[in-house]
Write a structure and sequence with these properties.
The protein is of the alpha/beta class. 52% of the residues lie in helices and 11% in strands. The chain has helices at 9-18, 22-33, 38-64, 66-73, 118-131, 142-148, 150-163, 192-195, 197-220, 226-229, 235-244, 255-258; strands spanning 79-85, 94-100, 134-140, 171-175, 186-189.
Length: 263
């Protein structure tokens, strides 16, 4: 059993907060429960709650990667998840990301990027890049969106992202669609960014990349508020369009922009 008698309650609180596995929290909870200090017994209960939370998170993550495990058992050594962001905005690129994760993944809180706070997305994007065997990000500009249409542009972006991986995937998991002209086995999963861990990882990295891109555009085009709405057709954005007109990074084929653009 861990000897906690010589540690202060502040040190023990820090220990409980830092513990990353259910097993370590279980051992810590047992040691704290045997301590005579009231604060230590309260920390024991906190450690038990954290242990259960971690165990639930592990089970959730296991479910998110269940399909990948089945594909790997069938011989697909490297499975890529791919997703895109930025289909709806009036300005900026469509960004896609493809990710190949290792066999063992530790990404607490991974989920559909739309369900996460900006701070959590930033943390997870960094952890995904650190753990991944390969990450590839590709963008289709607003001009290409106008030329191709936004649906085709999203397919092009995802195809570019997959082809840019430095580890060639044996199977590709795609959110809701299959990618044309990609000579690889694919599985389309409707709502995949919330159901599959590899697709969720791709959605997070793509979202963070595009948000940073739009923040840079805000510096180039002051007054539009790109750093806040990221190019979506908010009231603020529409008012700026009326006042300032479209930029070179607006999508001329989209109705609210088309009405103001000078061709």
């Amino acid at each position: 059993m861990i000897d906690v008698a010589r540690e202060s309650l502040a040190e023990l609180r820090s220990r409980v907060s830092r513990a990353r596995t259910a097993a370590s929290l279980g051992r810590l909870a047992d040691a704290l429960a045997a301590d005579r200090r009231l604060g230590a017994r309260e920390l024991a209960e906190r450690a038990r709650r954290r242990r259960e939370e971690l165990a639930c998170e592990r089970r959730r993550q296991a479910q998110l990667f269940a399909l990948r495990r089945r594909l790997q058992r069938r011989g697909a050594r490297h499975v890529a998840g791919v997703d895109e962001v930025g289909v709806g905005p009036l300005a900026g690129p469509v960004v896609a990301c493809a990710v190949v994760l290792p066999g063992r993944v530790d990404l607490p809180g991974i989920d559909d990027s739309k369900r996460l706070t900006a701070r959590t997305r930033l943390r997870l994007a960094a952890e995904i890049r650190e753990q991944a065997l390969a990450v590839s990000v590709a963008a289709v500009s607003s001009r290409e969106v106008d030329r191709l249409n936004v649906y085709r542009a999203s397919l092009v972006a995802m195809g570019r992202a997959v082809r840019g991986l430095r580890v060639a995937p044996d199977h590709v998991l795609v959110d809701a669609r299959t990618l044309p002209d990609l000579d690889l086995p694919q599985t389309a999963i409707v709502g995949g960014d919330g159901l599959d861990g590899s697709i969720a990882a791709a959605s997070i990295v793509a979202k963070v990349h595009r948000d940073e891109w739009m923040t840079r555009l805000a510096e180039r085009y002051p007054g539009y508020g790109f750093e806040r709405h990221k190019g979506y057709g908010t009231r603020e954005h529409l008012a700026a369009l009326e006042r300032l007109g479209p930029t070179r990074d607006h999508r001329r084929s989209f109705g609210p922009v088309n009405q103001l653009a000078l061709w």
